[in-house]
Amino acid sequence: MKQTMNKTIENPRPVNNKPEVQIRYRFFWAAIGLMIMTVLISGCAGATQTTAPGVTLTLDPTGQPKEVASGVQLLVLMTVLSLAPSILILATSFTRIVIVLSLLRNAIGTPTAPPNQVVIGLALLLTFFSMSPIINKINNEAIKPYTANQIDQETFFKRTIDPIREFMFKNTRQKDIELFLSMNNSQRPNSLEDIDTVVLMPAFVISELKTAFTMGFVIYVPFLIIDMVISSVLLSMGMMMMPPSLVSLPFKLLLFVTVDGWYLITRSLLLSFK
Asked: Burial letters for 65-77: b for 16+ Cβ neighbours within 10 Å, e otherwise?
């Protein structure tokens, strides 16, 4: 047994070095691939045009200052277009109109009639109609002179934002503006021009929400009275199993059509903007 142990000690098993060899080969081929990619990229950088099947890459020299300015203007235009939906929703009359129309639909008791597409489409049309004086002013004083190269870019942005700010100031409560000024740790402004748009826009939004919900409450009152009367009648007749909304819906539709509700709602919405 001792002889067997001695043989085992004298002739140890060979260590398997294959994993180490494989790792070394991987590092070797990775280094070669990195060198090849470096050579290819440097060759592409030196060439003005690189062509591949279905792909063409052209590297032109630095453009003229006018071309660079046009590129910057295009970038600014794309940024404005990407923010256009948010501006349309938060800086115009759209918020108040769409909320009032949605509350009207719920007050009548028809959550799917008119459908969402009709409500949003009508809100957009009324928004463009109510904002048409501001749109015309921006077009005449900002867009047309800038297109004709009569004003610079800074003047263009100022003439574009000023009518929108004026509209927001007219429809924003002073209390809301003071709230965001205090939250922003801003000094008390001496004039409206000293108030940043960052402060004005959220104040305008919460003012619009308050006005919209106030109008929605007024719209709800007559339909709520109809529901209460119908419920009392059904209860007195012993028809407790019949849903009051099922019976009151025709009466609410009749009342709304009789008083020409769409005319009154549209007129009230358009007159509510200062």
From this structure: eeeeeeeeeeeee
For 110, list phi and psi in degrees, rounded to 5: -120, 85
Three-state secondary structure call for residue 66:
helix
C-alpha to C-alpha distance for 256 and 219, rounded to whole angstroms? 11
pLDDT tier for residue 69 given thresholds of 50, 70 and 90: low
- CB atoms near residue 130 (< 10 Å): 20
pTM over 0.90, yes/no: no
Q: Which of 22-36, 77-91, 256-270 has the highest mean pLDDT?
A: 256-270
pLDDT above 50: residue 33: yes
Q: How far is CA 227 from CA 12, 104, 109, 113, in A?
A: 97, 15, 10, 19
Cβ neighbors of 197 (< 8 A, separation 6 or more) are: 161, 165
Task: Answer whether 100's CB lies under 8 Å from 127's CB.
Answer: no
Neighbouring C-beta atoms of residue 183, cutoff 10 Å: 10
SS3 260: coil
**Which residues does residue 58 pair with via DSSP β-bridges, in sequence order?**
49
The separation between CA 93 and the C-alpha centre of its own chain, rounded to angstroms, equals 15
| Closest by Cα among 93, 106, 135, 137 to 269 | 93
Q: CA 29: distance to chain centroid?
A: 49
**Helix (H) / strand (E) containing 55:** strand 55-58
Do 100 and 212 touch, CB atoms closer than 8 A? Answer: yes
| pLDDT tens readout for residues 221-269 | 888 888 888 888 877 777 777 777 777 888 888 888 888 889 999 999 9
